[in-house]
């Protein structure tokens, strides 16, 4: 579980990885959905992937957006989208809870 938590800790990400992640988000008006323009899971959630040391890693975008703006969460806490749009990255549309 500790390794998973560190994937979602933006303080551990190199600056260029964080910039590449944020480049996939089309930030718009505050109340509207901000679409993710990268890969997606089968359920439609945004997913960001990278290779490091011969391994592939991936994070779900709602959880990573939360971590960037509000801090990392423990692995048992989930991040849901109030808007119901699985590809949304607007922090105002995210809610965290068990």
Structural commentary:
The protein is of the alpha+beta class and 98 residues long. Helix content is 26%, strand content 20%. It is built from 3 helices and 4 strands, in the order H-H-E-E-H-E-E. Strands 1-2 form a two-stranded antiparallel ribbon. The model has no long low-confidence stretch (mean pLDDT 91).
Could you list the spans in which at least 5 consecutive residues all have pLDDT below 50? none
- In spatial order, strands of the major sheet run 1-2
Individual helix count:
3
Classify the helix fraction into a percent range. Answer: 25-40%
- Indicate the radius of gyration in whole angstroms: 13 Å
Structural class by helix and strand composition: alpha+beta
Q: Choose one word for the global shape.
A: globular
Mean pLDDT: 91
Which percent range describes the beta-strand content? 15-25%
Largest sheet: 2 strands, antiparallel
What is the rounded distance between the termini? 16 Å
């Amino acid at each position: 579980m500790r390794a998973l938590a560190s994937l979602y800790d933006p303080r551990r990400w190199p600056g260029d990885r964080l910039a590449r992640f944020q480049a996939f988000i089309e930030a718009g008006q505050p109340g509207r959905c901000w679409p993710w323009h990268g890969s997606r899971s089968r359920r439609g959630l945004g997913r960001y992937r990278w290779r490091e040391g011969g391994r592939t890693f991936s994070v779900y975008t709602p959880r990573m957006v939360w971590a960037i703006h509000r801090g990392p969460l423990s692995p048992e806490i989930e991040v849901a989208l109030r808007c119901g749009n699985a590809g949304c990255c607007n922090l105002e549309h995210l809610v965290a809870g068990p």
